[in-house]
Amino acid sequence: MKRFSVITAFPEIFNGFLSSSIIGRAISSGLIEVELLNLRDFAEGKHRQVDDYTYGGGGMVLMAEPLYKAVQAACSISGRAMVIFPSPQGVMLSQEVVESLAQEDHLIIACGHYEGVDERFVESCVDLELSIGDYVLTGGELPAMVIIDAVSRQLPGVVGKAESVAEDSFFRGFLDHPHYTRPVEWRGKRVPEVLLSGDHGAVLDWRRRQAADRTIVRRPDLLSRANILPYLSCGFYVTLFSAPDISLEELERICTVSGAYGAKKVLVVTPLQKPVTTDLSMVKRFSSLESAMSWIGKSEKKVPYVVGMTEAPCGGVHWLELKRRVLERDLPLSLVFCADELLAKEASHFDTMMCLDERGDKIPLSCEVSVVLDRLFGSR
Ligand code: 4FV
């Protein structure tokens, strides 16, 4: 059971939130517990003062002592807990941060109000200052609700099957696809026919394409965290172009990592000093780059998007831009690894080049391949 302790001078703000919908149900079923500590209960004097004018001139800020005492009281229940302070000066809340907070048994959220709080409270008691966005709110109460909501949804049983949203795709670097419900026609606007077709495969493809298109246009920055492979309707291929000195062990490593990330094949364009003798089922050999690319075209029934990997300074696009282009084109992808001088000679065969960090020959080709595949197809 997850416990949240919220310290606030305005506990009444939480009433509706804690008694409705998913959070209300999670509390009533005992999956989470939310305790409200009224800051005024920890204030001194007749007027139970919790705020005062800020030194140096300006508005009102919450005093340190009542906040400190409230944190001590919250900790007394379950021992040391993680203290969060919502503020625009904090670390930006993201799905990754939410997932890390979901590991904590007890979260104490201290809500600022007005201009904020005495910095000495933050220094003494706060483990994590968190921002929910670059704008200024009246108090930390709304951020507290955002944090409770997002963290609670990570807990088993809180979000039932019916309410579940397309988490993985969104959290892992993609925006969600559009949703529709009855009626089929609403004010002259029809539901997309594919969603009425009953063809689950077509629906899945449509949704992925919609999510990809939206993300490319509205939030290409999210793509750095995305595994784009599920959003491509074709396969990808690792192509080793003229790697004469590659050892069999190295080739096996490349096949292993390529297969692990979902490559369909490793295409080896000769010359290879040592012909590939053992059965590397991932490997297909070709005598030229053209024949390798035309094989992909025939297998996928679409002309491949051919990307050369180069270490030449400013020789190519940033991997994030490549990710966006690959997603946008949605073509079979051939990632071609070869020496830079060969790239220049065969430049006409490449649709684009991707910049590799300059490492010289310091790292084996299999590591180079792993880095590129993880940037495109690893999810984080
Ligand atoms: C905020 C935010 C935020 C600033 C002064 C409350 C207010 C007052 N918190 N993300 N944006 N807080 O605006 O988390 O203390």
Protein architecture, described:
- The protein is an alpha/beta fold and 380 residues long.
- A hairpin with a 6-residue loop joins strand 3 (51-53) and strand 4 (60-62).
- It contains 13 helices and 15 strands.
- Bound molecules: ligand 4FV.
- Residues 86-88, 112-113, 116, 131-133, 135-137, 139-140, 143 line the site of ligand 4FV.
Summarize this entry quickly.
With 380 residues, this protein is of the alpha/beta class.
Number of helices: 13
CATH class of the largest domain: Alpha Beta
* CATH H-level superfamily of the largest domain: SPOUT methyltransferase, trefoil knot domain
Low-pLDDT stretches are none
Please state the overall shape, judged from the principal axes of the Cα atoms.
elongated
**Average of the residue pLDDT scores:** 91
How large, in whole angstroms, is the Cα Rg? 28 Å
Percent of residues in β-strands: 15-25%
Q: Kindly state the number of beta strands.
A: 15
Distance between the termini: 27 Å
Share of helix, binned: 25-40%
Offer a few descriptive terms.
380 residues; alpha/beta; Alpha/beta knot; 3 domains; 6-stranded parallel beta sheet; 5-stranded parallel beta sheet; 13 helices; 15 strands; 35% helix; 19% strand; binds ligand 4FV
Helices and strands, with pairings:
Layout: E1 2-8, H1 15-19, H2 21-28, E2 32-38, E3 51-53, E4 60-62, H3 64-78, E5 82-92, H4 95-101, E6 106-110, H5 119-125, E7 128-131, H6 141-152, H7 167-171, E8 185-186, E9 189-190, H8 200-218, E10 236-241, H9 248-260, E11 265-269, E12 283-286, H10 289-300, E13 305-310, H11 319-329, E14 333-337, H12 340-345, E15 352-355, H13 365-377
Parallel strand pairs: 1-2, 1-6, 5-6, 5-7, 10-11, 10-14, 11-12, 13-14, 13-15
Antiparallel strand pairs: 3-4, 8-9
